[in-house]
Amino acid sequence: MDDKTLLSRINELVTEEERLLESSRGTEGLDPNEDARLKAVEVALDQCWDLLRQRRAKRHAGQDPDQAHVRDVSTVEGYQQ
Q1: Which residue, 19, 35, 36, 70, could crosslink 30 as a Cys pair with Cβ 3.0–4.6 Å?
Q2: What whole-number distance in Å separates Cα of residue 76 and Cα of residue 40?
Q3: Contacts of residue 69, Cβ cutoff 8 Å, sequence gap at least 6
Q4: Average of per-residue pLDDT values in the chain
Q5: What is the distance between the alpha carbons of residues 70 and 59, in angstroms, rounded to a whole number?
């Protein structure tokens, strides 16, 4: 996935996340399926951002950005901020 496609995917996920977060503020909140989807979107966003950072770092280091890969959930979600 090239940077342009990756950024497009990030934008799609952000739009969906915003929609779900807005729904969660309603009187009924999210149903279980929507809540699960929100969690999945958040994880997918973390993975996409991680992949984009990897690609940029490889490019900056003179390496092939196409050698970057999506890391597993436990790795991406285990990062400390």
Answers
A1: 35
A2: 13
A3: 51, 54
A4: 94
A5: 16
Please give the structure tokens belonging to residue 61: 């280091």
pLDDT band at 4 (very low <50, low <70, confident <90, very high): very high
Alpha helices (H) in 3-81, listed in sequence order: 3-24, 32-60, 73-76
pTM assigned to the model: 0.89
Q: Letter for the amino acid at 74?
A: S
Nearest partner of 44 among 15, 68, 65, 66, judged by Cα: 15
| Residue extents of the structural domains in the chain | 3-76
Model confidence over 33-42: pLDDT tens digits? 999 999 999 9
